[in-house]
Amino acid sequence: MAVLGALRGLVPALATLIILLALVPVPVTCAQYVLDDRGGLGRMFDGIGAVSGGGATSRLLVNYPEPYRSQILDYLFKPNFGASLHILKVEIGGDAQTTDGTEPSHMHYEDDQNFFRGYEWWLMKEAKKRNPNIKLIGLPWSFPGWIGRGKSWPYDFPDVTVHYVVSWIIGAKQYHDLDIDYVGIWNERSFDVTYIKLLRYTLDKRGLGRVGIIASDNLWEPISFHMLHDPELLRVVDAIGAHYPGTYTVQDALKTGKKLWASEDYSTYNNEVGGGCWARLLNQNYVNGNMTSTISWNLVASYYEQLPFGLEGLMTAKEPWSGNYVVSPPIWITAHTTQFTQPGWVYLRTVGHLEKGGSYVALTDRQGNLTIIIETMSHNHSICIRPPLPAFNVSAQNATFYLGGSFDKLKTLQVWHSKLNINSSKPVFFGKLSPVTVQNGSFTLELGVDEVYTLTTITTGQKGSYPDPPQSQPFPRKYKDDFNVRNPPFTEAPYFADQSGVFEYFINTADLGNHTFTFRQVVNQRPITWVNDPDQAISFIGDFTWSNVTVTCDIYIETPETGGVFIAARVDQGGSPSRLAKGIFFWVFADGTYKVTGDLCGKIVLSKGQSGVRAERWHTLTLIVDGIYASGLVNGQQLWKDVITIGPLHGWTAIGTSSFEFAQFDNFMIEAK
User: Fold this and answer.
1) Any residues with CB less than 8 A from the CB of 2 and at least 6 apart, and which?
2) Cα(51)–Cα(67) distance, rounded to whole angstroms?
3) How many CA atoms lie within 13 A of 343 on its CB side?
4) Which residues does residue 622 pair with via DSSP β-bridges, in sequence order?
5) Alpha carbon of 528 to those of 148, 189, 459: distances in Å?
6) 91, 103, 126, 264: which one is catalytic?
7) pLDDT by residue (tens digit) across 226-239?
8) Which tens digit of pLDDT belongs to each residue from 57-83?
9) Which of 423, 472, 477 lies closest to 451 in space, CA to CA?
């Protein structure tokens, strides 16, 4: 009984002790990671880049007024300022629709060469002006029709296709002093081994041996398999480029020993979730897949937002009429890597995943500098697609990093930090924190969820900034262009976005009255297309929300008997599905007839008759759409009236031709109510 009484007396004391122990903080254990070069180094880093093209994704950028245009370019290309891109990849225009529009070819026809069409030349020069070391890549998405000799295949006459592509590379140097560093084959389409070998042979023969070949800008296979079984093909391909590889590669690609690139990746909204996607890719493409370059599609969302994949650039610049632009989260996510590394640096072998989610990489210039990038993204954008995929199981964690080998004497590291607003916390983009002190060769970080850290010996990084751009404004409700005032570096009239065919400034040498300077559709043969382009040429302009609008334009049909042109309103489809566009289309033809249709392909006929229009004469067309009614005039005289509209209630205005044919436009004017 005495023993039992003694035990009963201990119970309150034990209870008190348990409570006190519960109140004592339990030390948080730290996962440990070693960053060391004593066992050798990993692969050489080739840089981070972005794509202008695929297609017409930079279309509106060239029309921005200064200083806003230069500011946008600085955020993209200026070192130690914004994204500080290492690579610019551009479309070799092929006159066909390649996602959000068409880009003009340097050779519309076999006997034609012009290296001043489009805006990619200008963009490459602006990138080089800011960063002379930036790498330039060219890649075809489509080809002019003459290359296939009437067939929809560019490899039947490989010597012709090689001549076309090599001419673009030579023209870049001859006319713009631009050295192209790499060239691709055919974006996301089949490759041809004979063509690739002939391309290498011709480049070498023309003194362009420094130009590398990327293949095949599609998937890892079957190009990797072919390279392993064809020694000559293995020799001539410099880098294997895969699109949207999901951070993983395949064994055959690794066995080739070639550079492995995510040569197109990202492709999601440039909001904070998209920024998180990009952060994860930039690390884990190497951690999981040994990819030494990641290239974003696309560079800048500078196209009408309602076209496919709106707002999917690293930043947004879609309002040249207002000057407004948005520096989006992916710009600063990019800076975490690009401002503190350069192509030619080398990854450490000691990279990997964090214990509680996320990843880390480390790179060195082999001269004592070290950059570490850590990400803890919670969303599984293994392929950056919309809508977001389910979240990863990522949680807050402490991590201790031990520096060994060449880095064991480092005492401090500069720190840059971003915190995304994915879980309703206050966002931080590319903020500079106090340096981390390295004690006894190690340091510890408290890592939250959806964060990016850069720790580096580089001290030159900065978060560039400009005063806020002008406020966003809709497209002007009254707009006109007589095409007389033109900016010489560009062949496109402001704000027109070609969706099929190519519309360019044109100077008439013949006496055509007051129509010396016009706008002309110049593609007269169906291109080797990348998607199923419509049989008509069409170019958009205006505000997708417009409903009631008056469109007036002078037109000139160049093709007797069979030619035709149109003006249109409420056009509801652009980009790759533009052949399905509906709206109100007012057509006139060289044989003197007209028709009004509810669609671009001309199957929904609302009215038709005689117009008096003839080829090789100027006429003025007017289309008035008001509520459920539409009316049309020719040369100021009523031709048809109060046709009941069907289909979309709003959309862009447009001009176009009934086929791939020459036609001219002048004195274009819109008035929206």
Assistant:
1) none
2) 23
3) 16
4) 552, 633
5) 7, 12, 49
6) 264
7) 999 999 999 999 99
8) 999 999 999 999 999 999 999 999 999
9) 423
Query: In the annotation, is 264 catalytic?
Result: yes
Residue 634, CB-side half-sphere exposure with 13 Å CA sphere:
23
The Cα 638–Cα 320 span in angstroms is: 35
Residues with Cβ < 8 Å from 272, sequence gap 6 or more? 329, 420, 421, 422, 427
pTM (2 decimals)? 0.94
Plot region of 80 (φ>0 → left; ψ -120 to 50 → alpha; else → beta): left
**How far apart (Å, rounded) are the C-alpha atoms in residues 153 and 528?**
7
- In this structure, the chain runs to a length of 673
Distance CA 292, CA 238 (A): 13
User: For 62, which DSSP code?
Assistant: G
User: Of all residues in the chain, what percent are helix, strand and coil, respectively (each to 5)?
Assistant: 20, 35, 45
Q: Are 574 and 580 in contact (CB under 8 A)?
A: no
Known catalytic residue: 305?
no
Query: Is 657:506 a contact under the CB 8 Å cutoff?
Result: no
- Tell me: the pLDDT tens digits for 407-419? 999 999 999 999 9
Task: Tell me if 452 sits within 8 A of 429, measured CB to CB.
Answer: no
> Which residues are within 8 A (CB) of 225 and not within 5 positions of it... i.e. 6 or more apart?
252
CA distance 46 to 290: 12
CA nearest 262: which of 28, 487, 51, 549?
A: 51
Distance CA(556)–CA(508), nearest Å, equals 12
Rounded Cα gap, residues 550 and 669, in angstroms: 8
Q: State pLDDT tens for residues 605-661.
A: 999 999 999 999 999 999 999 999 999 999 999 999 999 999 999 999 999 999 999
Instruction: Please state, in angstroms and rounded to a whole number, the distance separating the CA atoms of residues 413 and 457.
Output: 5
